[in-house]
């Protein structure tokens, strides 16, 4: 269970996140949506402990991140630009992370197999495609078999096969009782796999509802897209138009 309560973050004079409150529940896939600059990544970085909130609280299974002696069994992250040595192999990269988390190196093989990288475990990550790096980041998040998994745009760079694999992975993790929080712009996958959808705009929560309820508010051939556009109208800082008047 992930609980975000009244969280705000100010960078100087800029209020990037403003009193954000939402929950992500076990056995459920919660998507965090919003235009570029909405504050999604800042929220995720606060959940990961990389940015300290100006106010508010974040708890995982009722406890703060820093309250855990070793959080690797509680929560896992893939926030896109993860640190890696391009000369390390995938196996070495995950073994290093396993060591930091107090996990045995024997855990690495199973995680690499689950993300489809077992056949390239000995390849240097500097030779990986972006899609393969995404899979490696997801593997990092799955180390320690955490109850909560937080992913920022995990579908970026994946081909069609990769998208289908990711869909099955998410559904399987939720079926295991995992709590998933995923930031995404891929509304097709959101509509297929999402249980709850939280939409942000200009640092605030604009909508927090079930997938079915949000889709019911839309119209046309792509109702989720329609509903999303309606919710975020006025929150997009830049958009194509007819030119300045």
Outline of the structure:
By secondary structure, the protein is α/β, with parallel strands linked by helices. It contains 8 helices and 9 strands.
Give the secondary structure arrangement, pairings included.
Blueprint lengths: L1 E10 L2 E11 L3 E6 L6 H8 L7 E6 L14 E4 L11 H11 L6 H8 L15 H13 L5 E5 L7 H16 L3 E5 L3 H7 L2 E6 L2 E7 H6 L6 H10 L13
Parallel strand pairs: 3-7, 3-8, 5-6, 6-7
Antiparallel strand pairs: 1-2, 1-4, 8-9
Helix pairs in contact: 2-3
List keywords for this structure.
globular, 6-stranded mixed sheet, 24% strand, 245 residues, Rossmann fold, 2 domains, 3-stranded antiparallel sheet, alpha/beta
Task: Explain the overall architecture.
This protein has a 6-stranded mixed β-sheet, sandwiched between helices. A 3-stranded antiparallel β-sheet has the order 2-1-4, covered by helices on one side. It has 2 domains: 1-74 and 146-216, P-loop containing nucleotide triphosphate hydrolases (Rossmann fold); 82-141. The protein is globular. Helix 2 (90-100) crosses helix 3 (107-114). The mean pLDDT is 93. The chain has 245 residues and is α/β, with parallel strands linked by helices. The chain contains 8 helices and 9 strands. GO terms for molecular function: ATP binding. Pfam families: ABC_tran (PF00005). Residues 2-227 form the ABC transporter domain.
């Amino acid at each position: 269970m992930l609980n975000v309560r009244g969280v705000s973050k100010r960078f100087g004079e800029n209020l990037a996140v403003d009193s954000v409150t939402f929950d992500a529940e076990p056995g459920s896939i919660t998507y965090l949506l919003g235009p570029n600059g909405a504050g999604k990544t800042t929220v995720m970085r606060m959940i990961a402990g990389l940015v300290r909130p100006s106010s508010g609280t974040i708890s995982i299974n009722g406890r703060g991140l820093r309250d855990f002696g070793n959080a690797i069994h509680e929560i896992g992250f893939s926030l896109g630009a993860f640190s890696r040595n391009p000369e390390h192999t995938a196996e070495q990269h995950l073994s290093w992370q396993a060591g930091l988390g107090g996990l045995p190196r024997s855990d690495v093989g199973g995680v690499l197999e689950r993300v489809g990288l077992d056949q390239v475990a000995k390849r240097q990550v500097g030779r990986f495609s972006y899609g393969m790096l995404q899979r490696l980041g997801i593997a990092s998040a799955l180390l320690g078999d955490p109850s909560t998994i937080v992913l920022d745009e995990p579908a970026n760079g994946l081909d069609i096969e990769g998208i289908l694999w990711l869909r099955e992975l998410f559904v399987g993790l939720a079926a295991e009782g995992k709590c998933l929080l995923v930031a995404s712009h891929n509304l097709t996958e959101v509509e297929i796999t999402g249980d709850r959808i939280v939409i942000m705009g200009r640092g605030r929560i604009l909508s927090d509802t079930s997938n079915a309820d949000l889709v019911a508010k839309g119209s046309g051939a792509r109702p989720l897209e329609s509903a999303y556009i309606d919710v975020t109208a006025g929150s997009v800082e830049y958009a194509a138009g007819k030119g300045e008047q």
